[in-house]
Amino acid sequence: MRKLSEVLRLRLEKKLSLRQISQSCDLARSTIADYLGRARVAGLGWPLPEGMDEDRLGSLLFPVRPASMPRSAMDMAYIHGELKRPHMTLQILWEEYRGREPDGYGYSQYCNLYQGWLGKQAISLRQAHRAGDKLFIDFAGDTIGFYDQRTGEMSRGHLFVAVLGCSNYTYAEVTATEKLEDWIGAIIRALEFFEGVPNIVVPDNTRSLVSSPCRYDPDINLTFHEVAERYGFAALPTRPGKPRDKAKVEAGVLVAERWILARLRDLRFFSLGEINEAVSELLKRLNEHPFKKLPGCRKAQFETLEKPVLKALPERAYEMAWWKKAVVNIDYHVEVDGHYYSVPYTLIRQEVMARYTKSGVEIFHKSRRVAAHMRSYQKGYHTTIPEHRPPAHARYLEWTPERIISWAGTVGPNCGEAAKRLMAERKIPEHAFRPCVGLIRLGKRYGNERVDRACSRALKMNIVAYRHIESMLKTGRDQIPVPDEIPVRPAVAHDNLRGAGYYQ
């Protein structure tokens, strides 16, 4: 369903052609035209109405229809033979087919089934790149080393390369890894280097940017998709194992390795900053180096052809965000990076998406934000909004430490004193509520008198804890009196014992 809103955004907001949208979303143009037609009939524009989630959009554009009769099989041999006739096309054959079979396959599926039967091999196409249209990005296979000044340990930096399709104007930098944050950061810095945004960004079908790599229907990582929306470009990953889909950057990586990595091979670096300063100088020389067979250089071609047609950068730079799929636990909290954040209790057991930055956490259910929190880095702790609690839990929280201690005092004075000690030993008194309630409930199992006596023994031995008191009751140690003072044994005198004075 996410592709429906993406098609509407690219067409109605970005004014891309059907061919460009087809390349970005990996959909047939006829399918895209069908989506747009359905949106017009439904009276939808861009942006979508507030509160329009994925389920609502899908049901609006694709209402449930009665099940149709099974489609009859296509005669592939007949189609193949007819296509050998002069001026014959699949469009004509499909129209004749639908005349015989009104409920048969649509044109796109008709063509796909025939092409699958035919086993037609792909044909390479020499691409003519328009100014400002595509930016190709990739990481080089070779790395460059740098050393930690304190330990002397060497790490490997990864060379990121971005090449504009028309002018071959190149950007390069070295990052610590090839993780998602390095990809996103490098893409943003590349766009700032070009001082504009192309229509399409073409990355490799890498796992960092593509959640589910696929030849026909890659699932774009949500962070990368968010960056594309913020900067106004369409993401068009290449097919897996097809480097010719991004031949521009493949050649650009080779040139960058020769112009940058080869020239830095004998230098010793102690940080990524030092490496990128050297890369910046070599990159300037690369972009200003004259072409061998064409007039001018990369920079001149960029200034003349591409820079005037690039779209403007957004006013505010993108803040790195991560997305995580999660299921709401029975305590109506979702775990994000070791901390737990609350959502409305009605979403228990529901699947949600958590978006988190360095400063905040947002939680979405079916594309609708249901909770927002300040980011906390305390592992194992909870951040809870009171409105997210069910009414019964809200009533439980009306209990106070004084009320709990008073309740424990009904078991016996020693139990009340033990509850007070538990409260005092915890930084947050609420963390002692459950152990105190546990002490009170032990009275139902062992009797209030025994529980109070066990609490007295625990207080004298200075081991006030629920599990120790419960253990005393289980083993009967609460029946053993505790002496007020433990007798001190006299010092042993012996010729072989040298005494404390010897060690002074």
In short:
This protein is α+β, with helices and mostly antiparallel strands and 504 residues long. It folds into five domains: 2-61; 76-118, no CATH class; 134-309, 2-Layer Sandwich (Nucleotidyltransferase, domain 5); 322-395, no CATH class; 399-479, no CATH class. It has helices at residues 2-13, 18-25, 29-42, 54-61, 76-82, 90-100, 107-118, 180-194, 222-231, 247-261, 272-288, 298-306, 391-396, 401-409, 413-425, 433-446, 448-461, 466-475, and strands at residues 134-147, 154-164, 170-175, 200-202, 210-212, 219-220, 234-235, 322-327, 333-336, 339-342, 351-356, 360-365, 368-374, 382-383.
Q: What is the overall shape?
A: extended
CATH architecture of the largest domain: 2-Layer Sandwich
* Cα separation of the termini: 82 Å
**Might you state the CATH topology name of the largest domain?**
Nucleotidyltransferase, domain 5
Counted beta strands = 14
Helicity, in percent? 40-55%
Overall structural class, as computed from helix and strand content, comes to alpha+beta
The whole-angstrom Rg is 35 Å
